[in-house]
Amino acid sequence: MKVREKRDFPVGEVRRFLEPGPIVLVSSAWQGKANIMTMGWHMVMEFEPSLIGCYIWTQNHSFEMVRRSKACVINVPTADLAPKVVGIGNTSGRDVDKFSEFGLTAVPGTKVAAPLIGECFASFECRLIDASLIAKYSLFVLEVVKAHVAASPKYPRTLHYRGDGVFMLSGTNTARYRKHFKAQNL
Ligand SMILES: Cc1cc2nc3c(=O)[nH]c(=O)nc-3n(C[C@H](O)[C@H](O)[C@H](O)COP(=O)(O)O)c2cc1C
């Protein structure tokens, strides 16, 4: 394979190549109110316990809701929910009840007070287990304490955000390279 010629690129835009996806909807509850925000900046940090790190901007209503309630639900929407995903990211829970505005069903959680979003493919109930990086990086370290996943399809069509209003829709899956993996990396 040939060495590729590359050009200078703005460092502030490298996220277009690194956006991890899938886009998720984070639901939370605090003082009797529920809310939802759209999130792309999350990462897996550990298998057991199941840890997820995620960035929540200080100006988002969800910031204080998750920080104070110490819990949230990470919901995975499928591509058909894209208009709602964008709408939820364009509005704030300070001004609107997003469950009612976007016609989504709040399903009670089993381990946390935050509701699951019924229409999403998967919902992971999370507890905030480390708040020490919030002040410096707005980074919330969450532990998934209960996971709910639809029985099919095995690989849902998820949304992945490339920035600048462009979504990549998850597509082809292949197990062609599985034989090359070390067992511990599967
Ligand atoms: C595709 C997409 C990805 C987003 N990713 C994040 C994110 O990772 N972290 C974040 O703080 N805001 C993110 N946002 C912005 C929030 O969803 C947006 O500010 C929202 O209005 C917050 O709602 P709230 O004020 O009710 O919490 C994203 C928005 C979109 C449309």
Give a nutshell description of this structure.
With 186 residues, the protein is an alpha+beta fold. It has helices at 15-18, 61-69, 82-90, 98-101, 134-137, and strands at residues 24-30, 33-39, 42-46, 51-55, 71-76, 106-107, 116-117, 122-130, 139-149, 159-161, 167-169.
Word description of this protein:
- The chain is α+β, with helices and mostly antiparallel strands.
- Helices cover 16% and strands 32% of the residues.
- The strands form 3 sheets. The chain has a 7-stranded antiparallel beta sheet.
- Flavin mononucleotide binds at residues 23, 35, 37-41, 55-57, 60-62, 86, 89, 91-93, 161.
Q: Topology, please?
A:
Elements: H1 15-18, E1 24-30, E2 33-39, E3 42-46, E4 51-55, H2 61-69, E5 71-76, H3 82-90, H4 98-101, E6 106-107, E7 116-117, E8 122-130, H5 134-137, E9 139-149, E10 159-161, E11 167-169
Antiparallel strand pairs: 1-2, 1-5, 3-4, 4-9, 5-8, 6-7, 8-9, 10-11
The chain binds flavin mononucleotide (FMN).
